[in-house]
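2 proteins. here.
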Amino acid sequence: MTVRRGDLYELLGLTPRASRDEIAAAFRSHAKRLHPDRNPGDLHAAEQFKELTLAYQTLIRPDSREAYDERHHQPGRSAPPAPSAPVATSAHDPIFRTPRRARAAMVSGVVCFALGVTAAVLLAVVNTGGTAETVTLWIAAIKLLVCGPVLVGAGAYRLHRLATGQ
């Protein structure tokens, strides 16, 4: 995919002060015209639709819009940075940004651990055939047994951090 990274607001025909509703309406308006189903075989329209989708996905999410605005729309800055410049990410950007995601990680961890215990019990009881198959199955069971508590711990740690405002 060769998406140009020009001004995303300009691509949607908006100003940086546009509201979420205005962004969504502009996207829908342009998307109807450029959608690949309406323009079969038109590579230029398909490329424009990709750029439009990137602009919408970036600007509709508050976090990504804020990051985009910081990089491209700072007061006194005349042009966006060169495309070859790497985009720095925060070293402290949490994996589980919301309590819901942290709880989902904890539930997933419990499920993984339960599957690991079940797999280990079955492997101890059932003859699985050759040595290679048995070793592979044990490795999978051990991964589940290790990853489950790690997910539970990471989710619990993040919930604690969210609760204390850190």
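next one coming up
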Amino acid sequence: MDIKPFKTGKVRDLYDLGSNILMVASDRISAFDCVFKETIPSKGIILNSISAFFFEYTKDIIDNHMITSKYEKLPPPFNQNEYFKGRSMLVRKIEMLPIECVVRGYLEGSGLKEYMKEGCICKIPLRKGLKQADKLDEPIFTPSIKAEEGHDLNTSYQETVNIVGAEIAALLKQKSLELYIKVSEYAMQKGIIIADTKFEFGILDGKLILADEIFTPDSSRFWDIKDYMPGRSQKSFDKQYLREYLETMGWNKMPPAPKLTKHVITQTMSKYKEAYERLVK
């Protein structure tokens, strides 16, 4: 049988199975909105396994779209093809919301840039004098509008209300903060700081449902507690290593993406693997 996805994203392939979808995490990697020709071995299996673990771990906070990630429980012919083993998740088909729900516990990335310029993030004022990677007084909900291509656009809570309505916006904020607080406390016990993370939600039968991927190195910024020192960039367990390498190349961040060396591939793979082993094993 010729199995073809109905949608191919930067790193995942989606297969339409009627009322369900099979999400398959490939070993492709992207940075600065470019997908590289080289792949990161086992990356898809690692991301899928982390998401499956945290979907189960956070079910007391909110229901999610996962049906199963077990290979033997996938429908045929996917359970008869070794490629899909470990990297596939059967999920319920839901109506996705156009909001990316970002929670920040530390000052970094686009939040740092906005704070340095405006003294706030997504119109949330922060106290003066914060340094790069400082822990915020409390986690903040900083939504963005999902873009089909390019970077998502930071927005305000009020704009979120305008897009999805006051009731859904309040739920998105509440559940996102609850998810971040629970899992960041868990990660701390494993020696990892979750500086920030993002969630996606949808609606099924009038109910808010957690979807996509959660607490993976692609959707979160992980730091090692042992090396944590505010005022500078932190050592990461995510693809920040790859981004920093690319910044040294003089690449204009436009396609085509530069070739990744074997050393960079190996180092990137080790970052993903260590995050998995610390958080899930």
